[in-house]
Each structure stands twice: as structure tokens, then as C-alpha cells.
Amino acid sequence: MFTLRRLFKRGTRSTPDADDPASASPSPAAPAASEPQEPLAKTATPAILVTGGCGYIGTHTLVELLSRGFEVIVVDDLSNSSNESTRRAEKIGGKKVLATYNISVCDGEALRDVFRRHSVEAVIHFAGLKSVTESTSNPLKYYNINVGGMVTLLEVMKEFSVFNLVFSSSATVYGHPQVEGPIDEDHPVAPTNPYGRTKLMCEDIAKDLAASDSRFKIALLRYFNPIGAHSSGLIGEDPNDIPNNLIPYVTQVLVGRLPFLRVYGDDYKTVDGTGVRDFIHVSDLALGHVSAVEYLRKQIGSESDAKDKSKENLWIWNMGTGRGFSVLEVVRAIEKAAGKNVPVVMSSRRPGDCGEVIANTTKANSDLGWSATRGIEEMAATAWLFQSTHPDVR
Q: Could you tell me where the Basic residues compositional bias lies (predicted)?
């Protein structure tokens, strides 16, 4: 058993709107593990369990699932999100989630209660910490929550015979590019920070589990740089703390919540000297998750599959556009959308930064029939729409 997770129990982490009755989740909360468990009438409708479903990528994925008629259950401890985002996703998707549980994936007993209450057919696992900087200063927290949470979730899934998993991984597992041009899924993995290493550890755990039990069908999605917001302007990226990602940082500068944007490095061999990244619209990324879920549902499994090691049951797909934009190109796109300039301060490169990272998405295009379609202009315009219409949203 992974013991570090025991340090983080449900209810020990901050919940931004826990004291506000108007913003409390109307959905049932799982009882504490110490409470006596009364027999529950398990819901018969198969559902997709989305961990981290109140977060940035999670809520956009909820929209795509709900609008396609999926039944959805949300698990989120609200450490960097709020239940309001889920309610907005329900409004856009035209359908309610079955239930929202404000619990941590590190709390095995609370998770078990969710699985007792619902018939779960697949899990999309977003929940986790994602700041490269914070992971460097507090690595144990990241290993505890990201890796410990993954182990706990997989233990509970296996206990309840739920074998379909889509995991939110990251292109940070690749580390520094060792090839010129776009990176495919066979590129060597060598993460350069604790956050990236937690993602790679989770991938390795999933691989070992899939190899040991062929009933599991697991998709590992390696994201590049998700940005933008839903076209309705109702949901977008608005972290509780200072943003780690480029676009929310820029938009918060534009609405006066931050003074300026600091750009690290203007001497790379790129179009304007600033770093180039593969930015993908969050709605395209959300559709990638739906495509992955549908792909896994088509892979028929049975008890006998557990001993059949010849069948492929784990897939890795890059989630990007295959095209790169520089930091300043993204800034200019947001300035155009907002009609105002962004104060920029240029600084030297940070240790470990690289000039260009772009995805090769051929495998996802072929296997899933999925591709990113939204351009940088739409990414910038939707991000600005969300920020400008919700300047102080939390």
C-alpha cells in the first residue's frame, strides 16, 4: 500500500467557498469513513466519474460529456476550484451531473463510498497538483497527492471492477526535446522537475497495472499547453493563486489583478527569440477526452482477458495541435482580442527552459479520429471573453 497518501485526509485542505451557503454543492457528500455505513441503493445508470471535475480542463470536459448525453459524477476537493464552475458547465451542457463529491482522491474510504453509490463505467482522472515551481519547492506534497492519489484511485477501481481509465498526463514527461521538430509518443521520457516525474510515475503505475491485468483499458493523454475558454464565456481558467500558465497570467494583467508579464528568455532561435510552445484550445482537449472514453468503451474486455497478455490495453496519445507559437505571438493575439497592450518585462532564461516544444499528434488523429481545430485567435478571444466578463471570479 502507498502510505504517503495517509498524510492527506479529506477535509484537511482549503475549500474556497465552504463557508458560503449559497455556493455549497447541492449534491450529496460522502460520509466520513468513521461513520456507520447504511446500505445504499446503488444507481443503475452507468456513469463516467470525473476526478478534478470542478477544475479548468475538468469543467470543459464535463460540458462535452453532458452535451453528448453521458451520465457524470464529479469528485473534486476544491483545492483550486469551486462548485460554481460545475454548475456553469451543467448550464452549457444542458444536463445535470448525477452528483458532486467534494472529497480528495487520496481518501480511499470516501472514494469507496462513491463507487458503492454509483455504477461507474469509466474514470477520467484530472485531480492533482500542476505547478512546476511549487513541485520543486515542495516535492513531497506532489508525490503524495499526484502519485498517492493515483494509487488509491486504481486500488478502488480494481476493488469495484471498474477497468476503463483516461489519465491526465503531461508533455513534461518528455523533458528536453532530443529531436528537431514535433515530438511523438516514442520520444524518450526524461522529466526535469518533480511535477513531470509524478506524471511519469503515474504512467508507469498504469503500465504495470495494465500489464498485470488485461481487463484494464487505460488511455494516457500527454497534454501540451491547454489555453482558452469555452465560447460561451461562462467557464475558463481562473486559479485561486497566481497563475502558472501564460494566458490567465496575461488576462489578469489586462484586468489589473497583476502588474505586468515577465517573459523569460528572448534569445532562443525562434521567430522572435521567445520560447515556442504547442498551445491547444481547452475545448479541443476536452473533446480528446471524450474520444478517448469512446475508444476505451469499444475495447471489449472479460474475465478471461485478465490472463491474455497479447491484447493491447494501454494507449498513449499526445494532445496538441502540431503547430507552435511563441510567447510574444500569444501575447499579441490577446492584445488584439482585448484591444489593449500588455506591459511586458523581459528577463533572462530560467534554468531548464528550452526553446521549442511541439506535439506530433498523428497517432491520436489516426486512432481516435480526433484533431484540434481551433486556432490561436480563438484561443485568445475566448480567454479574454471569460476574463473580461468575470474579472474577479473565484
A: 1-12
CA 356 from centre of chain: 22
Q: Residue 230 carries which side chain, given as an amino acid letter? A: H
Q: Which residues are catalytic?
A: 195
Secondary structure class of 183 (helix, strand, coil): strand
Class of domain 8-389: alpha beta
Average pLDDT, integer, range 358-377? 98
CA separation for the pair 106, 285 (Å, rounded)? 25
Question: How many whole angstroms separate alpha carbon 140 and alpha carbon 57?
Answer: 24
- Give the pLDDT mean for 94-122: 98
Return the number of other C-beta atoms located less than 10 Å from residue 273's C-beta. 16
Q: How far apart are CA 187 and CA 315, in angstroms?
A: 15
325 bridge partner residues: 277
Question: Which among 323, 315, 292 has a CA at the least distance from the CA of 185?
Answer: 315
User: CA-CA distance, 45 to 66, in Å (whole number)?
Assistant: 14
β partners of residue 73: 49, 99
Centre a 10 Å sphere on the Cβ of residue 378 and count the other Cβ atoms it contains: 18
Q: Enter the DSSP assignment of 364.
A: H
| Residue 150 contacts residue 202 (beta carbons within 8 Å) | yes
